[in-house]
Amino acid sequence: MVRRLEKENRQKELSHLLADNPFTTDEQLAKKFGVSVQTIRLDRMEMGIPELRERTKQVARQVYDKVRSMLNHEFVGELLELKLEDYAVSVMEVGQEMVAEKSQVCNGDYIFSQANTLAIALINADVVLTGSARLRFRRPVYLKEKIVSRAVLARKKSNKYLIKVVSKVGAEEVFVGKFVVVAR
Amino acid sequence: MVRRLEKENRQKELSHLLADNPFTTDEQLAKKFGVSVQTIRLDRMEMGIPELRERTKQVARQVYDKVRSMLNHEFVGELLELKLEDYAVSVMEVGQEMVAEKSQVCNGDYIFSQANTLAIALINADVVLTGSARLRFRRPVYLKEKIVSRAVLARKKSNKYLIKVVSKVGAEEVFVGKFVVVAR
DNA sequence: TTCTTTTTAGTACCAGGTCTCAATACCTAG
DNA sequence: CTAGGTATTGAGACCTGGTACTAAAAAGAA
Predict the structure, then answer these.
(1) A114-124 pLDDT, tens digit each
(2) How distant is C1' of C13 from CA of A28, in Å?
(3) How many CA atoms lie within 13 A of A21 on its CB side?
C-alpha cells in the first residue's frame, strides 16, 4: 500500500519535473528521488516518456519551428485569403502558451498581433508601419478557440491606409480594431 | 588548388546547412557531400561546430528559455518599478527577432505587448483583461534601442481602469496608448 | 622526387540510453 | 506462516552518434 503510493507520487512528480525541465538524465533523476536508475527507466516506460536525447530533440524541433513562425514573426496566425489593398483573412487557434494559466483566457497581445500583422500584410510595400490604432476587445477568448480575423481596407490617402479588422470566434465578434498604417 | 577550393566551399556550405538545419548527423552530411564521415568530422572540428547532440541541446535550451520568457509571456520587457494601482515602469531592448529584416524597424506587436502587459501588471487581480485601447506609434523604433515604458493609472470606475502608457527611447516619445482594462 | 595538404580508414572509448533476464524486497490474502 | 503478486534493483549485451588518436593513401606543389 505504501509502496504503491510512493510509486504513484514519484511518477507524477517525475512527469512534472520533466515537463518543466526536460534536460535531466535518468541518473540525475535517480539521485533526486533516491531510487535506482532502473526504477526511473521503468517509470518512464510506463508513462511513455522518451529518453533525454529524444526529449531534447523534440523540444528543439518544436521550438525551432515555432521560433521561425512566431518569434521571428512576420505574421501571426495562418493566412487564408489575401487580396492586396482590398481584404485579407487569417485564422489562429488559441494555444496553451497564449493563455493565462488561471483563467485560460487568451492574452490580448496575441489577438492584437494577429490583427496587426494581417493589417500590415494587406499593404504591398517593403516597409509598412503601424501608425495608430483603436482597439476593442469585446469578449475574452479561451483556449482552443479559433479566431478568424478579417481585415478590410477602408480608406487610402497617399501613403496612409485605414484598415478595419474584425476578429470572430464562430459568429461572435471578439475583437474589432481600426488601424492606420503607413507605407514608406 | 582544386582540392583547396573544394574544401573551402564544402565548409562554407556545411556551416550554412547546419545553421539552417542543425539536426543532421555526420553520416547524412557525408552522403550529401559525397565524402567520408571523417572528412565531415574534420571540417566540423576546424570550424568549431559541435556534434549533433550538442547542437540539438543548444537549440533546445536557447529556445526553451526564449519561449518561457516571450511566448509564454506573462510579461514583455523587464519590470523596473511597480506601485500597484498607481504606476509602473518597464524597459525592453529591441532584439534581432523583433525587427523586420529589411528595415530593421521593430514590429509594433512588441511595442504594444510591452505597454499592454505593463498596464495589466498595474492591476492587482487574478484575471485582468484588456477591454479597449487607443494607440499611437509616434516614430519607428530600431534595433538595439531601449524602450522605457511608463504606465500610469488615470481613472478607476468600479472594475474598469483607464491606464495611460507612454513609451520612450531616451527622451523621445515613440508610443502612447490609453488602455481600458477590466478586472474580474 | 620529396614535402605538404587533404582525405580516408580503423581502433579504442564514452554518454546515455534500450532490451532482456534474473534476483530481491515488501506487502497482502489465504 | 507462507505462497504470490507488485515494485525495485542489478547485470550484461547492444545501439547511436559521436571524440581522440594513429596511420595510411591520394594528390598537388616545390
Answers:
(1) 999 999 999 98
(2) 23
(3) 7
